[in-house]
User: Fold this.
Amino acid sequence: MNICFVTKSDYNVIKNIGRIRELPVELSKLGNKVSLITAIYGNKPEKNVCGSEFQNITFIPIGSKSFLMSFFYAIKLFLFFFFNTGYIKSIDTFIIDYTSVAPLFIFILLSRLRKSGTKYILDIRTIPVDVKGIRDFLAYFEYDMGIKIASLFCSGISVITEDIKCDAMKRALNKKVKMEIWNSGVNLNTFNYKSEPASLSGIINEGDFVLIHHGVLSLNRGIIELAKSMEIVSRQNSKIKLLIIGSGPAYGRLKEIIDISGLSESVYLTGQVPYDKIPGYISLCSAGIIPLPDMDWWRVSSPQKLFEYMAMGKHLIVSDITAHKKVLGNNDFTIYIKNIYPESIANAILEAYGKWSDSDINFDAIKLISSNYTWEIQANKINNFIHSV
Assistant:
């Protein structure tokens, strides 16, 4: 079966996430050919970007990011489908994000009327996040209309969590539309507790209790409060270090906090790190920390970074939000942060040091993740759903 994922997300941003790197591989093992149609902002990547993940990647060039980028994406995606009918007919199933529903509506409708056999499935990985003002209004309008149209004309809707399924069902005009949940996942071969630790000599010393946070660095993820908490922590315990991996809008602010507060020996920013190098950094650390605030954006998420820490047997310091509680429940390897004020984060970190400074690999976390959240499990859910609609 030929499957094609379609997304407005910038390839330069998503190329290092597990869903793009791992899911196509697992779907291919089930006998599928998987391709990707994705937006690209700025210059196209150099050749050989596909690697072994996709049979083919088609880039929808947008230019620089601007207020009109959704409009440019819609027009260019429509034109690509219009002028490449041969390629479009070769695809058995398109799995599209909500931003792609309106531009492709005519093709979805024609496929439905002609009963051509081509399936269109709306896939919702997130609600609109990191948007404010008019952009927030437009993003939610696009999200809402995407679900309404898909419920009437697409073969089905797949979602990332039960909470988003409930939200999508409320918005759907056709309440009988088929829905399936497939979560984020993790590759247990890539994120393995036996991974060789990265070398950070001169920064991380023997006996240090090292925390790690990795991912997109934006202002609404509790990262700023985490950095500020380390000023409190460092005054009480110089052996506790924080490793922050990633890039994004909050990087400059984080660097400013580190410089002003004199945290250069306690907090280390690596910048963006290639996907296959991340396990080495996690292996170096004692615990993963995820201080996401309790807001709609994160309550309904399926936290992939959490899964990666768990797969490598790390202890966890996480905010007390629904997305974390549903995965973790109550256990001995998790400390919940009461709120994301720096004082509360600092208290949780100091508690973790008291409990886990001499702890070994946490095999309970590995067992939990391997039973429920591997990419192999998610690929089977997708494959079965496609065949059922």
Q: What stands out?
A: The chain is about 40% helix and 20% strand. The chain has two domains: 2-185+374-388, 209-372.
